[in-house]
Write a structure and sequence with these properties.
Largest sheet: none
Structural class: mainly alpha
Radius of gyration: 21 Å
Shape: globular
Distance between the termini: 49 Å
Number of helices: 9
Helix content: over 70%
Number of strands: 0
Length: 286
Amino acid sequence: MTSSSSLTGARGGSRSAPSSDTARATAVVVSAVVALVGGFLGSGAVVGTPIDQAAGGALSASATLVAPAGPAFGIWSVIYAGLLAQAVHQLLPSQRHDARQRATGWWVVASLLLNAAWILTAQAGSVTGALVVIALLLAVLVVAFVRLRAASTDGRGGSRSASPLQLVLLDGVVGLYLGWVSIATVANAAAALAAGGLPVTGALATGLAVVVLAVAAGVGWLLAVGGQGRVAPALSLAWGLAWIAVARWSGQPEAPLVSAVAVLAALAVLAAPVVVRARGTRPTAA
């Protein structure tokens, strides 16, 4: 027998889903604005200190052997633009109740707030604090990436359809964001170690840099395999590696060996999604 209370509960549940979807979509927009404002202010364009000068220059292109050259950070303009476009796109009725948006929305919110928190922490001069925040940001983006892949299947071995625009604005932007934060975490970790007294140059520093770059290449392969050949994470990760190569070849401190390894790592990362696709694994997203 079906009671009237159970019917009421069922109706309440059907009403709560759209309500929670609206809350999630609104939170994405608000957090995107917070991240954009934080990024603008954190750049030092109006107030504050540019990030590369914060914390006594610990996060500058010359701070460690795995710090990317300055132009590398121009990728933030692409990522921020994509995040803002995605925030607007997910407000559409066709997207607001979409399973893939539901699976990742709150994680995107967390990533955007952590992004703003990282800028504030770096501006405050805490390199170790910034490392903790960016490590949390990386973990959140990994979860979003994994949940996005899981939400791309219908649970019966098939795949959920996604519009080309959603693939670019959701999968593509999350992938670019994840790939770049991966290499930024490496640079932040190296800066924290240098601030703690680890030599910036010399045989030990060079050896550690080579190991770190090899690990970064391995991460690129893991993202490609785990993401079924997604290209976006590889593009931003390889971008960061390429600018590390430039910094160590033409900037200070010079480290030709590190530069060469960074180039090889970038090429390996770019090759990863190509190999995954060639093996017959069809990518579900950008």
